[in-house]
User: What shape does this take?
Amino acid sequence: MTEPLRLGIAGLGTVGAGVVKIVRQKANLLTARTGRPVVITAVSARSRDKDRGVNLSDFAWEDDPVKLAQRDDVDVFVELMGGADGPAKAATEAAIAAGKDVVTANKAMLALHGQELALSAEAAGRVIRLEAAVAGGIPVVKALTEGLAGNQIERVMGVMNGTCNYILTRMESAGLPYAEVFEEANQLGYLEADPTLDVGGIDAGHKLALLASIAFGTKVAFDDVELEGIERITIDDIEQAADMGYKIKLLGVAQLTGRGLEQRMSPCLVPAISPLGQLEGGTNMVVLEGDHVGQIVLRGAGAGEGPTASAVMSDVLDIARGIRVSTFGQPADMLEAAKAAKSAAPAPYYLRMTLHDKPGALAKIATVLGESGVSVDRMRQYSHEDTSAPVLIVTHKTTRAALDDAIAGFEATGVVASPPVAIRIETV
Amino acid sequence: MTEPLRLGIAGLGTVGAGVVKIVRQKANLLTARTGRPVVITAVSARSRDKDRGVNLSDFAWEDDPVKLAQRDDVDVFVELMGGADGPAKAATEAAIAAGKDVVTANKAMLALHGQELALSAEAAGRVIRLEAAVAGGIPVVKALTEGLAGNQIERVMGVMNGTCNYILTRMESAGLPYAEVFEEANQLGYLEADPTLDVGGIDAGHKLALLASIAFGTKVAFDDVELEGIERITIDDIEQAADMGYKIKLLGVAQLTGRGLEQRMSPCLVPAISPLGQLEGGTNMVVLEGDHVGQIVLRGAGAGEGPTASAVMSDVLDIARGIRVSTFGQPADMLEAAKAAKSAAPAPYYLRMTLHDKPGALAKIATVLGESGVSVDRMRQYSHEDTSAPVLIVTHKTTRAALDDAIAGFEATGVVASPPVAIRIETV
Assistant: This one.
C-alpha cells in the first residue's frame, strides 16, 4: 500500500496546528514507519483568517466541517473541534456515512455518543479511533486494547485531569486554600471555559467512562460514573492526609465485579509513596491492572499541543499501516450493558469532622461507627479551637453504605459541630 | 478473517506455560478481541515428561523445535527457548523459511542477530515480533513503534534488569554490602545461571540495543553498548549518593545525536525524587522522550510468568488481528548504521576517592580537575579515617573524556590513596 493516506482536519486549535506541524515536518519519517505518505488535503475551522502559526495554503479550505468530512480527497476525518454534540457529531456522522475513518480527541462526544457512533462506523466497515481523547500523549488506549489484550483487566485507575492535580499539589506545596489556587489556575489559563468540567471531575469522568468500556468490554456508561469534584477539599484535609502518609488526588477508578461496574471519579487518598501519590503538577498517570501482567503504570503529559497531536498521529499512522482496531477494542455490538455498582467495593475511609468540646463526644462518635459496622483503624484529636475540636478518623475497610449510615447517625449525638468530610482511601 | 490462528510453542518454561494458560483460559475473550479463535496446535520442549502444571495432551508434540516451526498446522512460531544461537536461532530461521510469523521473548538472539533475522522475515513477507524481549509485561515496543510513531525519539532510558534494581535498593534499605545482597539474590533464585548476564549489565544491554534500534531507526548494535555492571558499587556510594539526593540505578540510556549513537548501560545517579529514583525492588521502568509528546514513563513487572506471557500474547493477538508492524518499527533494510558515540553527551559526574591526609591534598585534586576543564559543583570531605580521608565531588557537566583525563592526572599528585570511582549523574 503506497497510496498516500489523505487527512481532512476539522478544528485548528493548538492540537490541530500541532498535527499540521508533525505531518509537514516529519514526512519522511512517517513514510518510513508506515510505508506510505501521509498528507493533509483539506482543513476546516471557525475562522479562516486567524494566524495559527502554520501555513495552510497547501490545503483546501472548507467552512463547513460536514463538507470537509464528505470530500472525495479525504480518507481520514480528523475531528479536533470538541463539543459533545453540534458540528463535531454531525461531521463525524457525515464522515462515517461517506466511508471515511475517523480520528478524534473528543472525549465528551465519545463518552455520550461513542457506542452509537462506533456501531455505525463498524457497520460501514470504518473505524473511529480515540487515543487523543484520554490522557493526552500517553498511549493508554493502545496499551489497553492491544498491549494488554491477553489480560482480563481487573482495575483501571488514573489521574486524568492535569488542572485538578495542579491545584491539589499547589495547595499542598504553597499551603494555599482552594479558592486562591483555583484563581491562580484561572489566571494561568489552565481551566476550561466552564471550570466545572475540570474541578467538578466531568472531563476526567468522560475519560474514565471510555477507559472502562475498553477495559471491561462494556457499553460506555458516563451517566453511571459517580462524580465528585475537588471543590470541597480543604488545605486541612491535604495537610492532615500528608501527616498520615497520604496524598489527595482526583482519582478515577473503574472495576468490574460480580456486583456490577463501579466507576468513580472523586477525590481519594493514596499512599504518598505510591506512583500516584508522587505525581506532581499537571502530569497524568494511568494505572492498568491485568490478571496476568499485574500492575502497569503509564505517566506523561495529559494535554497540550505536542502530546495531544502525538496521540492523534498514533491513530492516523495506525490507519496508514492498516491497523484497524475497533474503538473499544472489540466490536461495539458485542459490548455488554453492565449494571452500575455505586461505590460497592469496600475501602478504608478518611473522616474529618469537628466535635463540640463536651465530655464523651469522641466516645459517642466511636459508638455510632461501631453500631454501623464501621471499625476504626486510627483516630486523632487535635488541640481544641475555642469550644470545638477537629477529629480525624481512618477506618478499616468498610462499604460506603455503612459509612453513610454512620454519618447519618452522628447528627443524633449532638456532638458534631461541622458536617463530616469522608474521603475514600484507595489501595494502589 | 475467522480462521483460527494456530500457534506452535517451542520452550515450555514458566513463560511458555503462562502462554498455554492464557490461550486456554481466555479463549472467548481473545476471540472477542481479535475476531478469530487463537489455538495452540503443537509444542516442543527439552523434556516431554516434566510436569509444568498445564495439560499438554491436546497438542501435538515435537522433540525438535525446527520440526515444530515447519509444521503445516502452525501459523505462528512462538520461540520461548532462549539462547542467542543454537536451537532458538535454527528454529526461528526454519519458521521464516516455512512462511511462518515468529513471536519471541529472546533478547539475546535479537540483540545479536535481529537485523539479519528481520531482513529474512521481511523478504518472506513475515514478521518477527519482540514485545516480550524487552521489559517483560510493559508494552514498550508497542508504545515506541506505534504509540509514539509521530515523534522523533530523543532519548530512551530504562531500568530493565529487575535483579540489579533489587540488589541496589536492598543494599540501601538493609545497609548491606554488595556481596551479601548478591548472595541473597542468588538464594532467592533471582540470578541467571551466569550471573554476569544480570549484574554485568549484559541482559539489560541486549534490551537497550533493541530499544535503541526501534527508537532511532538504526541497526541493532549491541557491541557498541558501553556496558558497566553494578559489581563495583559499594554501600558507601549508595549512602553518599542518598545524602546528596540521588539514587544509584543500573540505567540504560540511548540517544542519537550529531556525534552518533550513544548507548550506555551502566550505574548512574538519578534524582531520588524522579520516577526512576523512586523505583524500588524488581520492577522495571522505561522512559521514552519524543519531540512532540515529551516524556512518557512506563512502569511494570519486567519478568515472571504472567507479565512475560502477557507480552507474548500482545504480539500473538496483533497477528491475529492482522497487525503486522515490522520488528524494528520500520523495514529492516531501511535501518541505518550509526556511528557509535561513546559517552559523548556531557553530564555531571559523581567522584568518590580517598586522599592521603597531607596538607593541600584537596587543592591538588581541584587543580588537576581545573586543568582538565572539569569544574566542581560540590565537594565534601568526610572526617578522617586513620591517615586518609574520603572525599566526594560532584562536577558540573563535563565530557567523560575530560573526566578520564583528570582521573589519570590524579595519580601524579601522590595524594590519592584509592582509585577514584566515577559515576555519571543522568538528567532525568
